[in-house]
Write a structure and sequence with these properties.
- The chain contains ten helices and 14 strands.
- By secondary structure, it is of the alpha/beta class.
- The chain folds into two domains: 9-141 and 239-273, Periplasmic binding protein-like II (D-Maltodextrin-Binding Protein, domain 2, 3-Layer(aba) Sandwich), CATH 3.40.190; 145-235, Periplasmic binding protein-like II (D-Maltodextrin-Binding Protein, domain 2, 3-Layer(aba) Sandwich), CATH 3.40.190.10.
- The longest helix is centred in the N-terminal third of the chain and has 14 residues, at 79-92.
- The protein is globular, with a radius of gyration of 18 Å.
- The two termini are 26 Å apart.
Length: 295
C-alpha cells in the first residue's frame, strides 16, 4: 500500500545525519521564521564580490535525507546539495567553490537577512508571507503536506486531531497551515527535524506533519508508522531564495534553472540522489520541476 502511495504522490525525505562534516556548520537561533529585525539586515554580496572571494555560501539542511543531510562519512549530500554544487560550478568554475552553511527551518529568512548565506537551498516552500521577506527564484520541486502517525492510532483525517497533539517544526508550512486553518489542534513545536521525529517515536505527540516528500519516506523505514494523510493543503513549490532585493543573484539563478532544463538537470539529480532511496516506484515528474515550469 505504501508503494502505491509513493507512485501517486511526491517522494519524501527521511531523518538522518548529525551536524558535522564539510562546510561551515551553523545551527541558528530558535526564533520564528522572519522575525530577524530589519535594522540587522546586512547588505547582500554582489556576484562580483562572490567571485572575488571564490566561494558562494549556500544554506542547506543537515538532517533531511535525501534532500540535505550529512552521511556516515561526514559528507553533505542530497537533492538540494547536488543543485548547490552545480550553482558553484557554473558561477565559480568548481563544485568545491560552495561553502555549506547548515540551517534550520526557522532561521532560513534570518540567515539571508544577516548575510550569513548568499542562497538558501533547504526545501524552502514558496509562500506569500515568505515572499515579503526574501526573493524566490524559479521553482525546482513541488510538494504538499502529509501527516504520519503510529499504525495503532492512525490519523487519516484532520478532524481526528481534535484533543490530540500534533508535532511540527518551527518555521515550516505545516506550522503555518495548522495555526491558520486548525487553531484548535494542539501543536508541539521543535527547532529541528530530528527532535520532531524523536518526539513521535517517544510518543510525546500523536502525529507529525511536514512535507509529504519527507514523511512518506520516513514511514517506509520505520515499521509501525503510516502516512494516513498523504496530501494536505494546496500543491506548492520549492525554490532557491536570496536576500530581498538581491535581483542580480536571483536573476542569475533563474537563468541557470532555465538553461539546466536543456539537459534535464533535475531529472538527473533525481536519478543520482533520490532514485537510490525510492527505487522504481516513484515517478520523477511527481516531484521534479524543470526550467521553473510547474506541470
Amino acid at each position: 500500500m505504501k508503494k502505491k502511495l509513493l507512485s501517486m504522490l511526491l517522494v519524501a525525505g527521511v531523518l538522518t545525519g548529525i551536524l558535522t562534516g564539510c562546510g561551515l556548520t551553523e545551527t541558528g537561533s530558535s526564533k520564528e521564521e522572519g522575525t530577524f529585525a530589519t535594522q540587522n539586515t546586512a547588505q547582500a554580496r554582489t556576484i562580483a564580490e562572490i567571485k572575488e572571494e571564490g566561494k558562494i555560501r549556500i544554506g542547506v539542511f543537515s538532517d533531511k535525507n535525501p534532500f540535505g543531510y550529512v552521511d556516515e562519512n561526514g559528507e553533505v549530500q542530497g537533492y538540494d546539495v547536488y543543485f548547490a554544487k552545480r550553482l558553484a560550478k557554473d558561477l565559480l568554475g568548481s563544485e568545491d567553490a560552495v561553502e555549506f552553511v547548515y540551517v534550520e527551518a526557522a532561521n532560513r529568512v534570518e540567515y539571508l537577512q544577516a548575510g550569513k548565506v548568499d542562497v538558501i537551498l533547504a526545501n524552502f516552500t514558496v509562500t506569500e508571507e515568505r515572499s515579503e521577506k526574501v526573493d524566490f527564484a524559479l521553482p525546482y520541486m513541488k510538494v504538499a503536506l502529509g501527516v504520519v502517525s503510529p499504525d495503532g492510532a492512525q490519523i487519516t483525517d484532520v478532524e481526528q486531531l481534535k484533543d490530540k497533539t500534533l508535532i511540527v517544526v518551527k518555521g515550516t508550512t505545516a506550522e503555518t497551515y495548522f495555526e491558520k486553518n486548525y487553531p484548535e489542534v494542539k501543536l508541539l513545536k521543535f527547532d529541528e527535524y530530528q527532535e520532531a521525529y524523536d518526539a513521535l517515536l517517544d510518543g510525546r505527540g500523536d502525529a507529525f506533519s511536514t512535507d509529504n516528500t519527507e514523511v512518506l519516506a520516513w514511514a517506509i523505514i520505520h515499521d509501525g508508522y503510516t502516512v494516513g494523510i498523504t496530501s494536505l493543503g494546496e500543491l506548492e513549490t520549492i525554490a532557491p531564495a536570496v536576500q530581498k532585493g538581491n535581483t542580480e543573484l536571483r536573476d542569475w539563478i533563474n537563468e541557470e534553472i532555465i538553461v539546466l532544463a536543456e539537459e534535464q538537470f533535475f531529472h538527473q539529480n533525481f536519478e543520482e540522489t533520490l532514485k537510490p532511496v525510492y527505487g522504481e516506484d516513484v515517478d520523477p515528474d511527481s516531484l521534479v520541476v524543470e526550467g521553473g515550469v510547474v506541470e
